[in-house]
Design the sequence.
């Protein structure tokens, strides 16, 4: 699991995926979400605007990222 530091109390999923380097541009986020490859705290997620807070776990394929 990799911790990804954020400078605010919350961050949107799409922004987090860009910050973590999972995608290069925001439009790539929709493809990941549409393919069902993203999970937040164990549950499938399809909304790029989902608000994440510190401690949340985002899984993309086999990569786990913790909001830090």
Sequence:
């Amino acid at each position: 699991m990799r911790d990804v530091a954020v400078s605010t109390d919350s961050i949107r999923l799409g922004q987090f995926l860009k910050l973590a380097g999972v995608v290069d541009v925001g439009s790539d986020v929709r493809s990941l979400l549409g393919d069902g490859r993203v999970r937040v705290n164990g549950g499938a997620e399809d909304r790029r605007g989902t608000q994440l807070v510190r401690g949340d776990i985002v899984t993309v394929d086999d990569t786990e990222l913790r909001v830090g």
In short: Residues 38 and 60 are 5 Å apart (CA to CA).
